[in-house]
Amino acid sequence: MWLRYLIIALIFISVDTFAQQSITPNELLINQMSANSYTIIDVRSEEEYNAGHLKGAINIPHNAISEHSSLLNTLKEQHLVVYCRSGRRAGLFIDALKKDGFKLVHLDGDMNGWLKENLPVIERAQSN
Description:
- Helix content is 45%, strand content 14%.
- The chain is α/β, with parallel strands linked by helices.
- The chain has one domain: 3-Layer(aba) Sandwich (Oxidized Rhodanese, domain 1), CATH 3.40.250.
- Helix 5 (88-98) links the parallel strand 4 (79-83) and strand 5.
- The longest helix is centred in the first third of the chain and has 19 residues, at 2-20.
- Residues 14-20 have low confidence and may be disordered.
């Protein structure tokens, strides 16, 4: 019975999220446990990404969109959740791609909000 409610909740979140164009950290965590998880894009610098990012996030810095156009074209039909540190760069990234028909959603609170909720991050090991 609880599984039925979880499925209904996931459907509601999925439909509602893309109507609102934003998603909360907890909604994203629930989504990432589903069979239809969103693709997450971290638009911060490579250094910021390596210091800590959401599990599975792809790093495409907001000022390097053209350098990643081939990758982005492969993601065009997917739902993309975008975040940066505080929101400004994610907004720039979303504005740049929305006109091209990308399905973009902004993570509420961005990385600062994620960390405030004490949610897990992945750190890339530094090579010596």
